[in-house]
Amino acid sequence: MPRSVNHVASRAKRKNFLKLAKGYYGRKKNVWTVAKNAIEKGLVHAYSGRKQKKRNYRSLWIQRINAGARMHGMSYSQFMGKVNKSDLELNRKVLADLAMNHPEAFKAVVDTVNK
Question: Max alpha carbon distance in the chain (Å)?
Fold first, then answer.
């Protein structure tokens, strides 16, 4: 009995992988083994990048809140300690936006927290 190999499925798999490699430079876009390695590494970086993006944004928010708090004479840790004690329901993303784009509203938050 002849050996059965599923060429249709394996060719389709390669075709889809090479579709993902569209836009890559040199042999990475059209040589199967090189493209496969490049795509797998790219997908790993994409996965870890989605996690790092969250860390980077939190770090950015903290820097912006710190800058805004220091304009009003307190450090980030003092400010966040008072925010948590005052049961203010504002997260870092909102506080950073206020500090950056609406300084008068951020000053109102600082005044509320200092009471």
Answer: 87
Euclidean distance between CA atoms 69 and 57, whole angstroms: 18
54-85: pLDDT as tens digits? 999 999 999 999 999 999 999 999 999 999 99
User: What is 7-114's CATH number, 3.90.20.10, 3.20.20.70, 1.10.1900.20, 3.50.80.10?
Assistant: 1.10.1900.20
Q: Torsions phi, psi of 93, nearest 5? A: -60, -45
Task: Look at the block and give the residue holding tokens 């797998």.
Answer: 40
Burial class (CB in 10 A: 0-12, 13-18, 19+), 31: middle
